[in-house]
Amino acid sequence: KRPIRFIQSASLTFATSGGSKEEALLLSAWQRSHPRVTKTQPLTPAMYRTAAKRLLGAGFTTSRLLRLPKPRPTTIIPFSYCTSSMNHTESPIGNQSVNPNQSDPTAAREEGHRRDESRKPRAEFEEEQARVLAASLRHVPRLGWTEEAMIAGSRDVGVSPSIVGSFSRKEAALVEYFMDECLQLLIDRVDSGLDLQNLIPSERVSKLVRIRLEMQIPYMSKWPQALSIQAHPVNVPTSFKQRAMLVDEIWHTVGDGASDLDWYVKRTVLGGVYSTTEIYMLTDDSPEYRDTWAFLDDRVKDAFDLKKSIQEAKYFAQDIGAGVGKSFQGLMNGVMQTMSTRGGRSSAF
Amino acid sequence: MALRSISRRFGSRVLSYRSSSVASLHSHATSFGFQQVKEEEKSKLVGNVFTNVASSYDIMNDVMSGGLHRLWKERLVGKLSPFAGMKHLDVAGGTGDVAFRIFDAVNSVKRRALRKVDEDSLEETQIYVCDINPNMLNVGKQRAAERGLGDNKSLVWVEGDAEALSFDDNSMDGYTIAFGIRNVTHIEKALAEAYRVLKRGGRFLCLELSHVDIPVFKDVYDLYSFKVIPNLGELIAGDRESYQYLVESVRRFPPQEKFATMIADAGFEKVEYENLVGGVVAIHSAIKL
């Protein structure tokens, strides 16, 4: 009961802090449809933000998040790029090689319609920047994650390349946009009816991570550059946040299952699995990245086994403790008895 | 250095605010430093100032700012991020400081290596230096010749008025004005012209002496401005009045937020400003969309 009340109070504070009534209602509708929230799962702001973003899209991010305790302008704007650009019919994204799997059109339209209802008008320059970034992605396999790709992208859109100068941390903006867009594609793919029912949790995780990593295949030759850009100290907060959101999303989709591990540990473990697989993929030459998927399955199995091993270790420790306790008790009893008999004997002297 | 953004929002402006802004613009147009002058006379008086200081302009810049003006201009050009094939206009750029920096940024070895990759950019870079004062332009041309750029087709020296530019609409990728906009009689006209000549996606950048708000530092700065600078002017350039005008005109210029609003009024998007040295200098930037 406690977590549900937490969400309700969270949605109230969210509503009073400036969110509209309808958005608060949407949030409570989400609560009702997701009764899986168990007592063991602490609700961090990140978690319900992720879910709320799915429902509310761009309008939520640009206007609302700015008022939450930890405002993050750098991630907000890129995220809203992809949601709005998904709604633009003239945007080249849908036809890009970036998206190998088209999401179901009716589901996407529904999602888009829902987003349109609650979306606030975005500043025009943000739209323009989003369009430039989307067009730049086409040039990345050839030019890398660089200003040149962005200049070429801006020429495609018909805007002066000077606009590239207005992006803060230029190449990072492009990489972050791509990461947000991939997350959105993953969400859309899941929403449009991905079949996860017949799979055990470890296989679900594998499948989701695989879908996400496959989105990077067209850019694999330049992906090391993207990783190094993300690792720059200036860019680390944003890239860390994006990865955290991704991992959060995957776990949320997989469902809690019968996991007893701590919520944060789960995210960290999956983050590790994702990152190691991503890096393994960089040097994988096998046809269709077979080796990478095998590596991924092994890592996921290890992670789930780790959970089992920790559980077993806990039980073992408890048993030993009980055993030691018992034997200590027996020892003490023996000692007391000896003392009392000896004392008895001595008193006889 | 604090970066504050004002994004252009769709909405109506408050009428009273507009009338007060008109009043202050009028006061800028009729002020020559702390003196009151007629609008028509202001540009003549400013012209005289710069005719007098042209020859020692660069030295005085170095002395007054302790060499910091170079860093400020580097920052300005960094923000612009020039690219090969760019058409750039530097207004009130008489002695060519900013123009030379842009030229170097575009033609540096690193850029040339990358240009091989960018096959689309077949057009040559063009940097136009526009100034109302021919003396300042002559100093600039001299400096170009000293650098060996005297015949270079990329640098074009044009005499013109910031309020009535002779360039076509939508022809420039970038527009910079460094330490020039406070000398313009009608700021809003200069901004409107900047908006006119810029292409879609083009950037407007303005480097200008601005207002300091930090308590103790403000007094130090005022002391330095009014006591030290005119004396330096007399000592080095032999012209106290011009430098008195300079420090007074800085005080009469609208503060950062106000100027940012004016830029937004001209039609620009994503208007931001960055204070350098606690507000002594501010770089305002905006995009035309």
TrEMBL record, chain A:
The keyword Mitochondrion applies. It comes from the Eukaryota. The keyword Phosphoprotein does not apply. Transmembrane segments: none annotated. Belongs to the COQ9 family. Pfam families: COQ9. Residues 107-127 have a biased composition (Basic and acidic residues). It comes from Brassica rapa subsp. trilocularis. Membrane-associated protein that warps the membrane surface to access and bind aromatic isoprenes with high specificity, including ubiquinone (CoQ) isoprene intermediates and presents them directly to Coq7, therefore facilitating the Coq7-mediated hydroxylase step. Participates in the biosynthesis of coenzyme Q, also named ubiquinone, an essential lipid-soluble electron transporter for aerobic cellular respiration. Residues 88-105 have a biased composition (Polar residues). Pathway: Cofactor biosynthesis; ubiquinone biosynthesis. Residues 236-306 form the COQ9 C-terminal domain. This is Ubiquinone biosynthesis protein. Residues 88-127 are annotated as: Disordered.
Automatic annotation (TrEMBL), chain B:
Keywords: Membrane, Methyltransferase, Mitochondrion, Mitochondrion inner membrane, S-adenosyl-L-methionine, Transferase, Ubiquinone biosynthesis. Pathway: Cofactor biosynthesis; ubiquinone biosynthesis. InterPro entries: SAM-dependent_MTases_sf (IPR029063), UbiE/COQ5_MeTrFase (IPR004033), UbiE/COQ5_MeTrFase_CS (IPR023576). Coiled coil: none annotated. CDD domains: AdoMet_MTases. Its EC number is 2.1.1.201. Signal peptide: none annotated. SUPFAM superfamilies: S-adenosyl-L-methionine-dependent methyltransferases. S-adenosyl-L-methionine binds at residues 95, 131, 161-162. Its main location: mitochondrion. It is a peripheral membrane protein. Pfam families: Ubie_methyltran (PF01209). The keyword Transmembrane helix does not apply. It is found in: Mitochondrion inner membrane. It catalyses: a 2-methoxy-6-(all-trans-polyprenyl)benzene-1,4-diol + S-adenosyl-L-methionine = a 5-methoxy-2-methyl-3-(all-trans-polyprenyl)benzene-1,4-diol + S-adenosyl-L-homocysteine + H(+). PANTHER family: 2-METHOXY-6-POLYPRENYL-1,4-BENZOQUINOL METHYLASE, MITOCHONDRIAL, METHYLTRANSFERASE. Component of a multi-subunit COQ enzyme complex. Methyltransferase required for the conversion of 2-polyprenyl-6-methoxy-1,4-benzoquinol (DDMQH2) to 2-polyprenyl-3-methyl-6-methoxy-1,4-benzoquinol (DMQH2). Belongs to the class I-like SAM-binding methyltransferase superfamily. MenG/UbiE family. This is 2-methoxy-6-polyprenyl-1,4-benzoquinol methylase, mitochondrial. The gene is A10p020680.1_BraROA.
